[in-house]
Design a protein that fits this description.
The protein is an alpha/beta fold. The protein contains five helices and four strands; from the N terminus they run βαβαβαβαα. Helix content is 49%, strand content 22%.
């Protein structure tokens, strides 16, 4: 059975997002079973996944949050990660978290080269073993 996978990617940092998407697609062999939806920011990812829980077998969340001078970073990261975990466990569906949390753009760029592939790997392993 071929699993349908939804990739939801925050497009706030476009170059970072391109790297994350490229990495995820590199790992997933059957491209026709994948849908990509781009959202403005990381905070919007759980909403799109929740609207599509019944349409897909697994999900990959891709994005980047870079720490600034205010506590906004902490609130966005915490609420997004908790929401994703809750969605995955309640729906009992694999969800690969490819959201980068970085202190600066240099860290984010470096992580963007591998994080998308890591998230796709997690989903593939969960599908195999689930």
């Amino acid at each position: 059975m071929k699993k349908k996978i939804l990739i939801v990617a925050s497009n706030y940092y476009k170059k970072i997002t391109q790297n994350l998407i490229r990495g995820s697609l590199k790992r997933i062999k059957i491209k026709k079973n994948i849908k990509l939806i781009k959202v403005p920011g990381t905070f919007e990812i759980p909403f799109i996944i929740s609207k599509n829980l019944k349409k897909f077998d697994a999900f990959i969340a891709l994005g980047c949050v870079i720490k600034g001078e205010t506590p906004h970073f902490d609130f966005i990261c915490s609420s997004t990660f908790v929401s994703l975990l809750n969605l995955s466990t309640k729906a009992k569906k694999p969800l690969g978290n490819g959201i980068i949390t970085a202190l600066n753009m240099k860290q984010a760029k470096k992580r963007s080269l591998v994080k998308g592939e890591e998230a796709a790997n997690a989903v593939i392993e969960l599908i195999k073993n689930g």
